[in-house]
Amino acid sequence: MFFKKTLWDPHIKGNTMTKLTIDEQVFICEPHETVLDTLLRENVAISYTCKKGSCQGCLVRSLDSIPPENAQIGLKDTLKKNHHFLACLCYPKQDMVIKIPSQSEFYTEGKVVVNEMLNRNTLLLIIALRDVFEFNPGQFVKLQRADGLTRSYSIANIPQASNTLEFHIRRLHNGKFSEWLHDEVKVGDSIAVSEAHGHCFYLSGRSEQGLLLVGTGTGLAPLVGILNDALIRGHTGPIYLFHGSRDVEDLYRIEEMRLLSEQHDNFHYIPCLSGDDVPEGFKSGRVNEVVLASLPDLKGWRVFLCGHPDMVNQMKKMTFLRGAASADIYADPFLVTPS
Fold it and tell me: CA-CA distance, 159 to 148, in Å (whole number)?
């Protein structure tokens, strides 16, 4: 392949074997091999399909160094920032410590410091961590209770000096985890927290670019983190946040968002209601319909979509058709785990 000749040619002086460390196991990568070649030769379980970088099935992460640029071709900027790369395109230039998706996750212990209601069915849960926790606002973690039951929730805050994480958790009917959090968890209880995941977050640069944030229900949680991160970093372009639900009782943080829009001329907050009762100050209609009616041209915009999977999937298509580049559309659909 072209990449093999330009990135790592075994006949070029100085190209030597490198070490790949995965979960404390060390594998030797020969000069002519990609990371994927080495892992397959060593029978390491890793997902892959095309071996050409097109399917992105062999996406892995470097934990100690910046991957070669050619191994990140086609990835979103947020994935590049977190040192993800395609194993099939990577000819290592140095020893690497690698994490593959199938590896067991590391959990750290957290303690509940706030447990109160945001609205009739949404819980504000704040967890304090003993060790320094690194994340980008908008990412999600997995929370795990003592019996091993695990669920994923988005982080709603930016990094704090108090080393806390904020979550907005909707009660789901017969949802084992959400009902446990709502009914049984108290301040002072311990919960295990995984490392942060996801690439739906804000990156500095292109500060004049328009930002579109669209969420339903607790999809507001990651969007609040992204919004505050962008404002703190001095984003100057227009920022529109559309938050939708059926009834006004299922929205929350309304006054906080309105106050923030008064403090920042470039920030616009639009709460949307799809039910019959729409008070003054709210837009009537499904959030996706309101967005498309309000912003017909999204060329050059960066888009963040969080919440109900149907809304997210529909808006991914519609914002692309309205001009947003696929690389600038970040999505976090909230998939519901049965019971």
Answer: 27
